[in-house]
């Protein structure tokens, strides 16, 4: 892609994201749905104005990393920790139920090969933390009890997804699972989550010290973005998704961050507010690019709408994809409305599901019918979940911002 083509593509993405986001808000839907639809409209599924190029994906990756940084900054760590048990139950139930159900459906009912069935189950385990978090944030519910449970579960789900993807990829390439490599990934991921927030807090103290001595209005945005990108890189090197590096950095810079061994590690509220205020325009610029790119990644023209296998498989997988994500939520000792909201919030597959499906397709595991059936399931769950969340919050009589 030439420079002028990229500039035009970026222009179309930003303008369409704004237009469709406003249209979605005008009809009472979460703006994220409009941004996802914008990607479908301007991408190969409809008009084909924008190519699904690697450079655009890089900008989108920065967008979701910054979104998770913002969520981390706004997260009440004590609430997140207090929801740890419930988050673990939701994550494990929402991970293993679709994995097992998807595998059994594909292998026993549709008589698909063993590896294909495993990849189908793996694709259904995914939860798009980006879509879920954005929907909760749009509704002003990310710091609610259900929001904290969902956030913790989505983070754990992402980590489990990375481990499963590594296992499946090894199995596809070599016909066997490299357990030593898997154990190494798990150790690195665990070490990252233990050390990253502490290191980020120490680095932010240095930034805060510099801010009091250097009169440069661009100091905070430059240093904070650099810090976030560093931790995204560190997360990748540790074997975790890059966006979790942004989340860890945000947690460490949160006004509510604490460590048991020293009150001096607390962030000063005024400094945290200053970071939030100066980072917000950057986050609002990059984040829509990510959601439009999710829509761009879908090519609905490849769907063979006349194939009976496609229809039977997509409807069956859709039922599993929706119902299985409620498994963990229904095991909680919480009010029914809260459990339903958590189950819905874990539903969208988004970019994570697309990664699983894409690797399965490029590795030659999926044929076109299976691949397109999975794409339809990913599209439907990603678009449906934010709308259902808003309706469920209304029914539960929670205060919601339009």
From TrEMBL:
GO terms for molecular function: antiporter activity. Residues 16-389 form the Cation/H+ exchanger transmembrane domain. The chain crosses the membrane at residues 58-77, 89-110, 116-137, 149-169, 181-202, 214-234, 279-298, 310-328, 340-364, 370-389. It is found in: Membrane. One of its GO terms (cellular component) is membrane. InterPro entries: Cation/H_exchanger_TM, Na+/solute_symporter_sf. It is a multi-pass membrane protein. Keywords: Antiport, Ion transport, Membrane, Sodium, Sodium transport, Transmembrane, Transmembrane helix, Transport. Gene3D superfamilies: 1.20.1530.20. It holds the Pfam family Na_H_Exchanger. One of its GO terms (biological process) is proton transmembrane transport. This is Cation:proton antiporter. It comes from Neptunomonas marina.
């Amino acid at each position: 892609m030439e420079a002028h083509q990229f500039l035009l593509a970026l222009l179309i993405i930003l303008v369409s994201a704004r237009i469709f986001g406003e249209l979605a808000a005008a009809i009472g839907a979460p703006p994220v749905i409009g941004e996802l639809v914008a990607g479908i409209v301007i991408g190969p599924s409809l008009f084909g104005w924008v190519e699904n190029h690697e450079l655009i994906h890089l900008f989108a990756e920065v967008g979701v990393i910054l979104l998770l940084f913002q969520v981390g900054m706004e997260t009440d760590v004590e609430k997140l920790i207090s929801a740890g048990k419930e988050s673990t139950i939701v994550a494990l139930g929402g991970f293993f139920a679709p994995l097992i159900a998807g595998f059994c459906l594909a292998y026993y009912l549709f008589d698909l090969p063993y590896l294909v069935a495993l990849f189908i189950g793996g694709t259904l385990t995914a939860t798009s933390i980006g879509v879920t978090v954005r929907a909760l944030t749009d509704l002003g519910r990310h710091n609610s009890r259900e929001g904290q449970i969902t956030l913790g579960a989505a983070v754990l789900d992402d980590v489990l997804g990375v481990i499963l993807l590594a296992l499946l990829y090894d199995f596809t390439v070599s016909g066997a699972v490299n357990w030593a490599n898997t154990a190494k990934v798990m150790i690195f991921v665990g070490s990252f989550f233990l050390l990253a927030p502490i290191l980020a807090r120490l680095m932010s103290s240095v930034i805060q010290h510099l801010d009091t001595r250097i009169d440069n209005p661009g100091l905070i945005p430059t240093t904070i973005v650099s810090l976030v990108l560093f931790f995204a890189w560190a997360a990748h090197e540790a074997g975790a998704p890059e966006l979790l590096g942004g989340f860890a950095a945000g947690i460490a810079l949160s006004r509510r961050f604490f460590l048991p061994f020293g009150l001096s590690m607390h962030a000063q509220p005024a400094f945290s507010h200053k970071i939030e205020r100066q980072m917000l325009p950057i986050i609002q610029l990059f984040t829509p690019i990510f959601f439009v790119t999710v829509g761009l990644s879908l090519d609905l023209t490849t769907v063979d709408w006349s194939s009976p296998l496609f229809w039977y498989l997509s409807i069956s997988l859709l039922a599993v994809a929706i119902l299985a994500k409620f498994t963990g939520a229904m095991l909680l000792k919480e009010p029914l409305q809260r459990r339903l909201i958590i189950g819905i919030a874990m539903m969208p597959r988004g970019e994570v599901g697309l990664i699983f499906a894409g690797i399965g397709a490029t590795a030659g595991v999926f044929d076109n019918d299976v691949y397109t059936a999975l794409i339809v399931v990913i599209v439907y769950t990603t678009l449906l979940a934010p709308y259902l969340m808003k309706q469920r919050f209304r029914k539960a009589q929670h205060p919601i911002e339009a």
